[in-house]
């Protein structure tokens, strides 16, 4: 069965790399390549427009202001039509078409419902925050090497747009909702990733956003009430 594939790329001031990312995305079998320019002040939109003029699959949506990667992903999602969605970052310097294909192939073959990218990259927010959080609350997901990766593929039926927030909130916006819905989750190694380095302030904001999304999801789904109920049963 042919399933339409949508690639969604949020971009904020990525004129140095967005062209290469789109070029490689155009080499895939994706039916549409959606770039959401999240209020960029550089040439990002101009570069995307040049690709759009040459390949009708490329679509550009522009946010007037910088709303954050979460809302950029959400806008791209709401504008997309594919049953299989690939989310990809715009700042990957060594991007190759095979990376997109590696992410989506398990979905095409119906071997998984959510595929996270795995790569060799030590991230402080991932190692010292995200992994311990998952290990404590959801040890069955603690095996994930890159639970905060913005590079992943997912079946549309396992995405819940109403949960998606403004910042970088991969765990609370995508990973946990899919897991609670019963998605089969896997990782694929896409090799070395070279991307723009984030400063300490940006990493601190990312950690806050991930924490916010993680606990927002748990609270909205009465996770702690259920845990209290289990404790009450033990006490009885």
Produce a short descriptive summary.
The chain is of the alpha/beta class and 236 residues long. The protein has helices at 18-25, 44-54, 69-79, 97-108, 124-137, 170-180, 200-220, 223-235, and strands spanning 5-11, 32-38, 58-63, 84-87, 114-118, 152-155, 185-189. The radius of gyration is 18 Å and the shape is globular.
Any chance you could write out the topology, listing elements then pairs?
Layout: E1 5-11, H1 18-25, E2 32-38, H2 44-54, E3 58-63, H3 69-79, E4 84-87, H4 97-108, E5 114-118, H5 124-137, E6 152-155, H6 170-180, E7 185-189, H7 200-220, H8 223-235
Parallel strand pairs: 1-2, 1-4, 2-3, 5-7
Antiparallel strand pairs: 4-6, 5-6
Helix pairs in contact: 1-2, 5-7, 6-7
Task: Provide structural commentary.
With 236 residues, the chain is an alpha/beta fold. The chain has one domain (5-235): Spore Coat Polysaccharide Biosynthesis Protein SpsA, Chain A. Helices cover 43% and strands 16% of the residues. It is built from eight helices and seven strands; from the N terminus they run E-H-E-H-E-H-E-H-E-H-E-H-E-H-H. The protein has helices at residues 18-25, 44-54, 69-79, 97-108, 124-137, 170-180, 200-220, 223-235, and strands at 5-11, 32-38, 58-63, 84-87, 114-118, 152-155, 185-189. The protein has a seven-stranded mixed β-sheet, sandwiched between helices. Helix 6 packs parallel to helix 7. It is globular, with a radius of gyration of 18 Å. It starts with a strand and ends with a helix. The mean pLDDT is 92.
